[in-house]
Amino acid sequence: MAPEPFDHPDADVILRSSDKEPMDFRVFKLFLSLASPFFAMIFTLPQPNSPVYTEEYEDGVPVVQMSEDKRTLHLLLRFCYPIALLDVPRLPTLQELQSLSQAAFKFEMDGVKRFARKVLVEPRFLESQPLRVFAIACRFGWMSEAKTAARYSLRQPLSSSAYYEELVHITAAAYHRLQQYHRICGEVASSRVRMQPALAEFDDEWVWIACLRCPGSGRSRRDTGYPDSRRWFVEWIRDVATEVQQRPWGVTVKKFDLREKAVSSAQRCPVCGPRAAGDLETFSEMLAVEIEKELASVRHSPHNLA
Q1: Tens of pLDDT along 68-83?
Q2: Which of 58, 96, 170, 254 is least surrounded by CB atoms within 10 angstroms?
């Protein structure tokens, strides 16, 4: 027997789960009909003509054999009952979210769909499993969520992503377009970083511009038209550009090990050493913002992605 309140003795229909050891949910047609147009239609049909009823009865109550398991049914039915009786359920896994969403589409429960879409892009899923979120959103035709997940997927190289079974639900074309989006964003972010030395002004106070003591990049100020940066900074720019091409995300610029490598090199210079860490940290924050602005300008239609 299902847990309270799905064990009510006055229930007028029983939903039986598809488990090997099925669970019976004693529920009320009224609640189901209000939540689902599918059930509203089914319950108005004469019982012999209804496609869902079996010939089985429990205590005189008709039994409906469901294709959903008990966990999915329990989640789904919690949305059919008043909030005074049950709290809104929490979906702990993406697998449960998919099962719930599939049932919501089947039973035409728009409120449950809206709830699932909102949960799908919660940080606990989006930040740790963006590719899975993308595939699920594509599966159910949720274009806005697919677009959001595509943006979050930039945080990791797509080439090193693990295989997820949700990928079977999207087309090869959708996955190819996601790869193209990654490639374009990587090129945009990398180009923005590489052009940074050329944006410097002669009166900039950054230590890699102000210092004339340690080795520079070797480029002539007269030839380039912009000030020569110190070699340790130019090498940091090169390393960051390579990194953001794989992970086109503003925060990548602030990667600790790259910054520490540059600061360590700068310590060899008595002029750069005392200021390098502070200047580079401030500069990294500014550059991260600029990269995010550039990435936001990359136009991609969610319909083209999915």
Answers
A1: 999 999 999 999 988 7
A2: 58
